[in-house]
Amino acid sequence: MTDLAEKKKSEKKKSGKFLMIPALLGANFVYSCTSVFTKLSSLQEPLSAKYFLFLGCAVSVLGIYSILWQQIIKRMPVSEAYMYKGTVLLFVLVISAVLFGESITLHNIIGASMIVGGIVLFSKS
């Protein structure tokens, strides 16, 4: 293969990886919604209709997420895709503050910063 062909192949691979990042973030957001439904389930009377409704929603969201995740790892190495799993914690942190009024502490902010820093650091390599 010529140098030009190798360069084009490398650029296409980098471009494809860049396009997969929004898909990864979207899939991780979907996954974080599971936490919302399990939290809502925990607020219901055990074994009530609403309890099972929210648990069913959580399982449905997991099904949707698994399909998205399979499509993502079909298009990129799982080692690269898995690096972005830390964003789930960021989404859950924000969602829990917005929907449930839970507080965001300094420790949460430090932890979130470390997650983002790790993702940025390893995505550059």
The tally of beta strands, per DSSP, is: 0
Q: Which class do the helix and strand fractions yield?
A: mainly alpha
Work out the helix count.
Answer: 5
Which sequence of SSEs, written as H and E, runs from N to C? HHHHH
The poorly predicted ranges are: none
Quaternary state of the chains: single chain
Mean pLDDT: 86
Helix content: over 70%
- Note the beta-strand portion: under 5%
Largest sheet: none
The 3D shape can be described as: flat
Cα radius of gyration in angstroms: 18 Å
Task: List the domain count as a whole number.
Answer: 1
Terminal residue distance? 25 Å
Give an overview of the whole structure.
Helix 1 packs antiparallel against helix 2, helix 1 runs parallel beside helix 4 and helix 4 packs antiparallel against helix 5 (106-124). Helices cover 84% and strands 0% of the residues. The protein has one domain. The model has no long low-confidence stretch (mean pLDDT 86). The longest helix has 40 residues, at 3-42. The protein contains five helices and no strands. The radius of gyration is 18 Å and the shape is flat. It is mainly α. The chain has helices at residues 3-42, 49-75, 78-82, 87-100, 106-124.
